[in-house]
Amino acid sequence: MEKGTWVVKKGFAEMFKNGVIMDVTTAEQAKIAEEAGAVAVMALERVPADIRKAGGVARMASISKIKEIMEAVSIPVMAKVRIGHIAEARVLEALGVDFIDESEVLTPADDKYHINKHDYKVPFVCGARNLGEALRRIAEGAAMIRTKGEAGTGNIVEAVKHMRQVMDEIRLVQNMPEEELVTYAKQIGAPVDLVAEVKKLGRLPVVNFAAGGVATPADAALMMMLGSDGVFVGSGIFKSKDPKRMAKAIVEAVLHYDDPEKLVKISEDVGEAMEGLEIDKLDVHLQERGW
Ligand SMILES: O=C(CO)[C@H](O)[C@H](O)COP(=O)(O)O
């Protein structure tokens, strides 16, 4: 099958279903993620909790860092670019990463436009807080969506809010009479053909993962219970007391989210979770980036 077609990009994303994608900043962390059963890793300079602490401008990771991670593992390697940074995206595509995350966790490069992702052979994942935002990203060519949550906080409340919002809107569209679709599409700023596809499928046309704030196995299970296709975790693993155990437990929790007895076992002895932050006390809300 020809590389870079819509079918291949979307199908590749579907292979991550029911899995955990872990942010990693070194080869050593990438190996921990792979051994824990992560379906992919996301190479970046710092996990979101440290990006938050450091402040300043957060950019695509250095080439040497991404290469180090690509050489360390055999699972797919994703990497982040700044919103709208078409040059960072071309660099990552040429480098041969498996997936690009056009991410609000990095400082946006363009305050109006996202990347035209149809123009690339490499698939993209993008963040969204509601159905309109998710469908705008898909219209631009995103082959995978992740709800944004509030990355780096260890606080699951925003991830829950965004997943519930997307799921509520999908249910609304499913029950909507055909004649209301055009007006609704206009209201949420989404192409009407994609709104019609959501109505037909009863879900987004691409996989939808949860991200931002997952800090315990129960948080990961919660996102699956709410209808997520899988989970991204960064700070929740590598800012916990015992990343190896936490990583394994989160992978297990995603697989067995509907089995409370198993979740008891999985949640035992994971060590201390990362410290959490209250959303109203934050200086920066990363989720507000993207349009
Ligand atoms: O940025 C991401 C996806 O693009 C991260 O994978 C995710 O949001 C991590 O958040 P956290 O550090 O809160 O787990």
What is this structure's SSE topology?
Blueprint: H1 6-14, E1 20-24, H2 27-36, E2 40-43, H3 48-54, H4 63-72, E3 77-82, H5 86-95, E4 99-103, E5 124-128, H6 131-139, E6 144-147, H7 157-174, H8 181-188, H9 192-201, E7 207-209, H10 217-225, E8 231-233, H11 235-238, H12 243-255, H13 260-267
Parallel strand pairs: 1-2, 1-8, 2-3, 3-4, 4-5, 5-6, 6-7
Bound molecules: ribulose-5-phosphate.
Ribulose-5-phosphate is lined by residues 23, 42, 47-49, 101, 103, 105, 146, 151-152, 211-214, 232-236.
Summary?
This protein has 291 residues and is of the alpha/beta class.
Number of strands: 8
Give the uncertain stretches in residue-range form. none
Bound molecules: ribulose-5-phosphate
**What sequence of helices (H) and strands (E) makes up the elements?**
HEHEHHEHEEHEHHHEHEHHH
Family: Belongs to the PdxS/SNZ family.
Pfam family, one: SOR_SNZ
GO molecular function: pyridoxal 5'-phosphate synthase (glutamine hydrolysing) activity
Keywords: Lyase, Pyridoxal phosphate, Schiff base
Report on the structure:
- It is a single chain.
- With 291 residues, the protein is α/β, with parallel strands linked by helices.
- It has a single domain, classed as TIM Barrel (Alpha-Beta Barrel).
- It has 13 helices and eight strands.
- An eight-stranded parallel sheet has the order 7-6-5-4-3-2-1-8.
- Helix 5 links the parallel strand 3 and strand 4.
- Helix 7 crosses helix 9, helix 10 runs parallel beside helix 12 and helix 12 packs antiparallel against helix 13.
- The longest helix is centred in the middle third of the chain and has 18 residues.
- The model has no long low-confidence stretch (mean pLDDT 97).
- The chain binds ribulose-5-phosphate.
- Ribulose-5-phosphate binds next to helix 3, strand 4, strand 8 and helix 11.
- It catalyses: aldehydo-D-ribose 5-phosphate + D-glyceraldehyde 3-phosphate + L-glutamine = pyridoxal 5'-phosphate + L-glutamate + phosphate + 3 H2O + H(+).
- InterPro entries: Aldolase_TIM (IPR013785), PdxS/SNZ (IPR001852), PdxS/SNZ_N (IPR033755), RibuloseP-bd_barrel (IPR011060).
- Belongs to the PdxS/SNZ family.
